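Let us practice reading a record.
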Amino acid sequence: MDNETATQETEEQAEQAANAAQDGGPPDELKVVIQMKGWKAIIVVGTPDCDPRIELCDVQGEGDPLLGALALVPEVVRAAREQWAAAKRYPAHKAPTPPPAPAGVAKTASARRKPTGTAKAPPKPPEQVGHTLHLL
């Protein structure tokens, strides 16, 4: 293979990779995490640019439950890629607006206090007698 053919193939591969990325093709990086508890598995599939796909699975089969969980990974990856093709991110959460406060109800604690008109004077210190009390 000469340099011109190799360069042409490399350019074609780069173009195919760019087209796949634009068309929602397979991501460059894929992370799969499996957490096991008995015969239940949580399988998480993620990429840096997409929200993760999380599935709780009942593992079937005999013997080692990890082997059963590993058998489920291709199906979870396929479902994740379908999800990412439709939308890479989950919809943003929009917090509901709080209901208006009923009329006549104070909004803050300071607004609920009734002014007394005068402040209490600090207590007077005890008068000094002129001798010292010895406790011990």
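A brief commentary: Residues 28-89 form one domain.
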